[in-house]
Specification:
Elements lengths: L12 E2 L10 H11 L3 E6 L2 E7 H9 L19 E3 L4 H11 L3 E5 L5 E6 H10 L1
Parallel strand pairs: 4-5
Antiparallel strand pairs: 1-6, 2-3, 5-6
């Protein structure tokens, strides 16, 4: 089977770090820095409610009058792109390119987060070809 037709579950980063929407943005920065990651799924009660990226953190810091008391929910994207574990690498890469995004959240059949696939993962796959 060609790699690009294999399921994204084979290439995703499993059990990604996550954060809750009510947590301080500073906590998100710490998690991202500690684990050297650029994308952080936002979960509430185990349910996906958003995605916070390094770009979101950088952008919100540039806004005038922004204080230190901001929460993750103030900066996160509320409608992240979700894909099924069974979707092909090719289809996921095409979705990411079409939407101009750096990551997608991977879910099981019950819409639970099982992984994340980022442009870094895509480059890793390309490098292995």
């Amino acid at each position: 089977m060609e790699k690009n037709r294999e399921p994204i579950a084979k290439f995703m980063t499993r059990t990604p770090h996550s954060i809750e929407p009510g947590q301080p943005l500073e906590e998100a920065r710490k998690i991202m820095g500690r684990h050297d990651i650029r994308h952080l799924p936002v979960l509430s009660g185990g349910r996906i409610v958003g995605l916070l990226s390094e770009r979101d953190l950088t952008y919100i810091r540039t806004l005038p009058g922004v204080g230190q008391d901001l929460k993750v929910k103030d900066a996160m994207v509320y409608d992240p792109v979700l894909v099924s574990e069974s979707e092909s690498l090719r289809d996921v890469a095409q979705k990411m390119a079409a939407a101009h995004i750096g990551s997608v959240l991977v879910c099981d059949s019950r819409s639970r987060l099982t992984g994340i696939f980022t442009y870094t993962d895509a480059l890793r796959v390309l490098g292995e070809s």
